[in-house]
Amino acid sequence: MSHSVTVAAVQLSPVLGSREGTIAKVCDAIAHAAERGATLVVFPETVVPYYPYFSFITPAVQMGPAHLKLYEEAVTVPSAATDAVAAAARKHKAVVVLGVNERDHGTLYNTQLIFDADGTLVLKRRKITPTYHERMVWGMGDGSGLKVVDTAVGRVGALACWEHYNPLARYALMTQHEQIHCSQFPGSLVGPIFAEQMEVTMRHHALESGCFVVNATGWLSEQQIAQITPDPALQKAMRGGCYSAVISPEGKHVVEPLREGEGMVVATLDMALVTKRKRMMDSVGHYARPELLSLNLDARAAAPLHLSSSDSLSLPRSTSDEPSAAE
Question: What's the total number of domains in the chain?
Fold first, then answer.
């Protein structure tokens, strides 16, 4: 029997330099999306506290202060920041997909968090390969996060930015029969060509996976761009590249995308379209040839220490300036 799901792709402008400020905007956006009927709310890549735009335009020798500030404002899991988002998800009965800069002791990660509609954190995954300048900022994730999770709105998967150019990462989620794919990009980066490439990529994934795609990008105001750099030549690199959209399994926009400014794209998904598409082309079922081509995924969590005995070690907890409400 067919059913529908209302979703929101939020194009959010972060509060630069403030984890608490951005978290407050995230929680407000969840409430506004719920008022419009959304039961799935998707936010941009590492929007909390903010995407490291500085790393795209600043020489490595000069980016120390900005990088250290990001350490200070990054999110630990769990913490007061994640407690606040979980509470908002629970209050508004919405599944929330949020991109954060996660701090784990001495390393930052590009992390995607999925909260179910009861506020439970059902997935924490890290971008497997930071892109280009991002490798000066974030560590690498592992295969343990390439998971599709059951939620109140269906089977949900997530990837960040250029992970979508790793076809095997996408295929790992496709084999787990994702119904809604949540994708995140920084927005306000590179220029219009970035948004054009993004649209091609995400519409193709919807077709190939036979799923809906909810894509969210960030947005920087002119004042924020000037705050990051006063150089007009460098400011050009932080305009354009915004494309918050909802795409059907047929590769069509369900509603008109948002390409400029803050706001949200809200759309109702007819989940029957998933079967309609897969009846014709199921790339991990009747259209697959696993005896010829298949994927080998190491889904183990990577760890720098493996104990050879049953003895346990006392390790410090992850650094946090913002304790969880449970503490």
Answer: 1
Which CATH number does the domain housing residue 239 bear? 3.60.110.10
Q: Which listed residue (25, 127, 147, 278) is catalytic?
A: 127
Annotation says 211 is catalytic: no
- Find tokens 């994934």 and name the residue: 205
Residue 323 has pLDDT above 80, yes or no: no
Q: The pTM is what?
A: 0.94
At 89, which amino acid appears? A
161 is known as an active-site residue: yes
In a domain, 290, yes or no: no
Backbone phi and psi for residue 178, each to the nearest 5 degrees, phi listed first: -65, 140
Catalytic residue among 161, 182, 211, 242: 161
Average pLDDT, the chain: 95
pLDDT per residue as tens digits for the range 185-227: 999 999 999 999 999 999 999 999 999 999 999 999 999 999 9
In the numeric block, the tokens 């250029």 are attached to 162
Domain annotation covers residue 315: no
The verdict on residue 318 lying in a domain is no
322 is catalytic: no
